[in-house]
Backbone:
């Protein structure tokens, strides 16, 4: 198979997995079949389970089980007196006993034990369960040292979506490109940027904001259908460089935030930026370079 075709298929499959994960999250309390999930992702059920496992490190039903548990953990945390049986039923389990069995097998504690952990302990359990499954198996080619740069302001045309970044980013880019290509001249585009932040005033997935778009030479002279415009303010950023597949960006950001915390670098409450430096149509996955920028004070 030609290299270009393999690259296109890899990107297409990641987008399918992202759509499937999003669908599972939105229907977590419902009974779901493999064929139903595959159909929503635009794939055949025969190949889909293998693709899902290869790209995410878990089967669709492992992912569903994990998302149901995360939803249950948040309910247990937010309502200390709520009925465990009602929580079990609300996240898709047919019986409380089935819920308790999966809970203990996965977390090695009971729902009541979780409630007694305290806020810090509870957040740690939720964080560990929320992390991508492949994270421990992947070594990312990320610069260990960073530099502080002054980034100028940028005119930005973008599509915005809300949800877990690794899941929502691929389909957002897939949806954004046809909108851009049909409404913006190529010579006006100066960069391809992904922006992400967490709005602490909101709860759940609505708090996670992802924007896929392009830097342009000047503001659009007309309203663009399906797209938004804003000006990214100038400011200081900690600059890291990632070389490798785009799927590693979110693992790299985890390492970046650990590094900045260890160095006691003060952060600003602005969007993090992914600046894509290569054309993915002609650049092999292992050679793609992405500038990762975190706003600092």
Residues:
């Amino acid at each position: 198979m030609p290299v270009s075709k393999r690259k296109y298929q890899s990107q297409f499959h990641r987008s399918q997995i992202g759509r499937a994960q999003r669908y599972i999250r939105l229907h977590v309390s419902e009974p779901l079949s493999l064929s139903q999930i595959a159909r929503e992702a635009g794939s055949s059920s025969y190949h889909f389970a293998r693709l899902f496992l290869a790209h995410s490190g878990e089967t669709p039903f492992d992912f569903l089980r994990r998302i149901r548990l995360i939803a249950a953990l948040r309910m247990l945390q937010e309502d200390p007196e709520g009925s465990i049986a009602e929580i079990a039923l609300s996240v898709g389990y047919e019986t409380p006993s089935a819920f308790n069995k999966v809970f203990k097998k996965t977390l090695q504690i009971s729902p009541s034990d979780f409630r007694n952990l305290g806020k810090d302990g509870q957040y740690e359990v939720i964080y560990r369960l929320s992390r991508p499954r492949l994270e421990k198996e992947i070594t990312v080619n990320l610069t260990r040292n960073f530099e502080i740069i002054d980034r100028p302001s940028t005119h930005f045309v973008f599509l915005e979506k809300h949800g877990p970044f690794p899941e929502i980013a691929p389909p957002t880019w897939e949806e954004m490109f046809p909108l851009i290509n049909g409404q913006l001249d190529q010579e006006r585009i100066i960069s391809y940027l992904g922006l992400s932040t967490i709005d602490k005033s909101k709860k759940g997935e609505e708090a996670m904001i992802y924007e896929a778009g392009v830097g342009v030479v000047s503001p659009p002279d007309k309203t663009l259908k399906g797209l938004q415009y804003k000006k990214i303010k100038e400011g200081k950023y900690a600059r890291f460089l990632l070389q490798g597949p785009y799927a590693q960006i979110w693992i790299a950001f985890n390492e970046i935030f650990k590094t900045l915390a260890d160095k006691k670098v003060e952060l600003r409450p602005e969007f993090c930026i992914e600046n894509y430096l290569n054309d993915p149509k002609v650049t092999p996955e292992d050679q793609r370079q992405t500038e990762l920028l975190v706003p600092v004070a």
User: Anything to note?
Assistant: The chain has two domains: 1-136, 141-295. The first helix runs from residue 3 to 26. The longest strand covers residues 189-198.
